Each structure stands twice: as C-alpha cells, then as structure tokens.
TrEMBL record:
UniProt xrefs under InterPro entries: AAA+_ATPase, AAA_lid_NorR, Homeodomain-like_sf, P-loop_NTPase, Sigma_54_int, Sigma_54_int_dom_ATP-bd_2
Keyword annotations from UniProtKB, A to Z: ATP-binding, DNA-binding, Nucleotide-binding
Signal sequence interval, chain numbering: none
Domain Sigma-54 factor interaction: 2-231
Lineage: Bacteria, Pseudomonadati, Pseudomonadota, Gammaproteobacteria, Alteromonadales
Protein name as it appears in the record: Sigma-54 dependent transcriptional regulator
SMART domains per record: AAA
Pfam families: AAA_lid_14, Sigma54_activat
Length: 332
C-alpha cells in the first residue's frame, strides 16, 4: 500500500500511473529509503505484465566476475563451478519486469554488457549457442545523480540515454511532511500486527515533532522508529521522543569538531573565532540549515535560537548554504 498518493506523492503518482499503462523503460530517482522499490513493484502490478515475474536485482551486489552469468545465465559446464544450467536475470524476468536497483553502482564492464542486451533484445547464455529472444520491461532506480556520474566517467552516457526515457523523482520525506501522520499510522498498524501489540496512534504533538526531523533515511527510517516506539511503549503508547532520533545525531557534530581542531600544527592553529564559526557551520550542516526546534542547530549547540542567529550574523553564516529543506520549510 502506497501512503501519500493523494498528498505528498500526488504529482509523482500521476507520472507513475502514466508510465504504468505503457511498456516504457522507467528510471526512478530518489534518496535511500524513499520508496523506489515500492513504486517499481506498483508499476509492475499496474501493467499488463502483472501476472508475470517481477525480478529485483541489486546491481551494487554483483561481483564483476559473475556479471555475464548473472545477466545471461550459463550452460552446464561452461566454466568451473557451472555445475548446472542457469537462467540469467533477463530470462527469469521474461514476459515480466526486471527491476535494476542501484543501477548507478554497476561496473563499467557490466554497463557495456547490459546495454548490449537492451539494444539487441536477444542474448546467448554463457557457453550457449542458441540465441534467446527476451521480452522484458526494464525499471531502473538509483539514489545517485547519473548525469554527474557520466561527467565523472563512472556511468556510460549511452546507457543513461537508454534508461532515461521516463525519469520519476521521488521526493525526500522531509519535503512531504504532510505524509508523516498517515505513514506513522500505517507503520504503527504494521508494528502492532507484527508484534501482536494493541494498536497505538501517535499524538498530534508527536506528529509535529516528527515533522521537524530531516529524515536522512526517509520512509524506511520512519518505519524503524515507529516500530521501535511501539516496542518501547508496549502497546500502551508510542514512545516517540527526542532520544529516539537524536542520539545518532549529536556525536557526528562533535566528532567533526574534534577532527578539525586536533591535528593542526601550532603555526596553523585556528583562532577561537575560526573554531566557533566552523562548529556552528558543522551544526547547521548536520541540521540541514534548521536553527530552531528539537532538530535544530541551536538545540545541538545548547544555545538559545536567538543567540545562535546573532552569532550567525556576526560570523556571516547563512542557513541557506546548509539547507536541503524546501523554501517553505526554511521560512519556518
Ligand atoms: N509511500 C509509502 N507508503 C508506505 N510505505 C512506504 C512508502 N514509501 C516507502 N515505504 C516503505 O519504506 C521502506 C523503504 O522503501 P523502499 O525499499 O521502496 O525504498 P528504496 O528507495 O527502494 O530504498 P533503497 O534506496 O535503500 O533501495 C519499505 O518498507 C517500503 O514499503
């Protein structure tokens, strides 16, 4: 079930529904945990291929020496270790959908092989002599910026052209905080079913609180936090509180300070002002430009928000430089 179809994902779902009706290649872009696989499965389920296989391949997890065999399959005895005949991804997905997750992680050699199959629509198993036709719909996903990867030489531009027919960008959870209440209720229900605990809902205060966090792990992180909160609350309440989210946050800001100050030779020793400025910048960076609230830099630095703002003015620091928040959120 996809939560947010009528809210934060409304515009995205319009594109998803359009592409689902066709047989076009789709490329799903979005941060980790934002729901790329969920959307890929939905596209498959809505398509005329729904009754056939949906095969997910994690492109980042395939050793280079196995790529041919994984893609094309192999015949028995075609290489040491090929004890039986094996069908590759394309054959297993035949008639259905092949979901190439984290396509940005494929090695360049693997990209060449993949492109060839996509272009030719046929393949030979490793060690095989029979040409096999394949009928597969491709959905690819990545959290990487593929255009940048092309510039860096890490991704082939011809493969990007091939898969970039219909790009769909999933917004990060911090940019669709209107979905947080429904997602929290959904995951609370799931946690109660899974753990056999009575269902407990989040209070409006807890939802407000969750809306202020920047969710680097997106929907997956929310799911984990709600499940943990259900266990800690023992089915009587959801134990959503600061300590659930912040412990991993605070040490990062601290360690950043330690590494910037500890190893400098004395002639390069930073002035106190420089250290303070860097420390404020590091806190703002960590809090995605947010100054106030439970996930704001002021809280992290144990300062009054107005004091922090005044220090930022003095040091010429603006929060926009650190923000991945939308202009609407920045105005908060
Ligand atoms: N809109 C949503 N409604 C309900 N559940 C969601 C939604 N988005 C994501 N989820 C859930 O969050 C978890 C993470 O989603 P998913 O695996 O699809 O993300 P992803 O972007 O593919 O992650 P990764 O980048 O790590 O591969 C899954 O359990 C998924 O079911």
């Amino acid at each position: 079930m996809i939560i947010g179809q009528q809210q934060g994902l409304k515009a995205t779902m319009r594109q998803v529904d359009l592409v689902a009706q066709t047989d076009s290649t789709a490329l799903i872009l979005g941060e980790t945990g934002s729901g790329k696989e969920l959307i890929a499965r939905y596209i498959h389920q809505q398509s005329h291929r729904a009754s056939r296989n949906f095969i997910r391949v994690n492109c980042g997890a395939i050793p280079a020496e196995l790529i041919d065999s994984e893609l094309f399959g192999h015949e028995k005895g075609s290489f040491t270790g090929a004890a039986t005949q094996k069908r590759g991804w394309f054959e297993r997905a035949d008639g259905g959908t092949l979901f190439l997750d984290e396509i940005g992680e494929l090695s360049l050699a693997a990209q060449v092989r993949l492109l060839r199959v996509l272009q030719e629509g046929t393949l030979f198993r490793v060690g095989g002599e029979q040409e096999i036709n394949i009928d597969v719909r491709i959905i690819a996903a990545t959290h990487r910026n593929l255009a940048e990867a092309v510039t860096e030489g890490a991704f082939r531009d011809d493969l990007l052209f091939r898969i970039n027919v219909f790009p769909i960008t999933l917004p990060a959870l911090r940019h669709r905080s209107e979905d947080i209440a429904a997602l929290t209720a959904h995951f609370a229900q799931k946690a109660s079913d899974k753990l056999g605990l009575p269902l407990t809902l989040a209070t409006p205060q807890q939802i407000d609180y969750l809306k202020q966090y920047h969710w680097p792990g997106n929907v997956r992180e929310l799911q984990v936090i709600v499940e943990r909160a259900a266990i800690l609350g023992q089915g009587q309440y959801l134990a959503i509180e600061e300590s659930l989210i912040l412990p991993s946050a605070a040490p990062k800001a601290l360690s950043a300070t330690v590494t910037t100050t500890s190893i400098l030779p004395s002639s390069d020793f930073p002035t106190l002002d420089e250290v303070v400025k860097r420390h404020i910048a590091s806190a703002l960076n960590h809090c995605h430009g947010r100054v106030e609230g439970p996930f704001g830099a002021a809280k992290l630095l144990a300062l009054n928000p107005n004091t922090l703002r005044s220090k930022m003015r003095n040091y010429g620091i603006t929060r926009q430089n650190f923000s991945q928040l939308s202009p609407r959120e920045l105005a908060d």
